[in-house]
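Appendix B. Raw example, untouched.
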Amino acid sequence: MIRTGKAAALCALAATMISAQAQACWTNAEQDAAKVANLNMMMMVSALRCRNGADDFLADYNRFVKNNNPVIGSQNAAVRSHFVRINGAKGADAAMDKFIIGIANSYGGGHDRLGCGQLKAVAKDLSRSGHNAGSLLAIAKENVDEVALAGGNCPVNIASR
């Protein structure tokens, strides 16, 4: 009887751990939104870093934000919803701040592959018109450094007959 109780407790613990892992994972939509948030942070930090040189693009970055504030905001809200799901409403803001600050800090010393001149060209492209989440995601995939997402990717369930 004791062995059965221990086995049941171990099964319950394993189920809880699997459930917690599944809850902490990032859905595809949340991952995409995180990439767009990463793009915005990369451009903001880089615009500030490059503003005193020949490749100043702060005005283009500001135009990008002005023209795309609703879509940037919607993508940040999607990332925040991930943190609400993981940490609850009370812990979401602190987790979101930690995430965004981590991204910003990763660009503090410069971009791994792109210099100010290349980033200026990206900013010019971003500032030309309004974008949607899909077009910003495509630009992000080309230009941002990868950010490790704690919890990894959520498993994909494929329906079967």
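End of appendix B.
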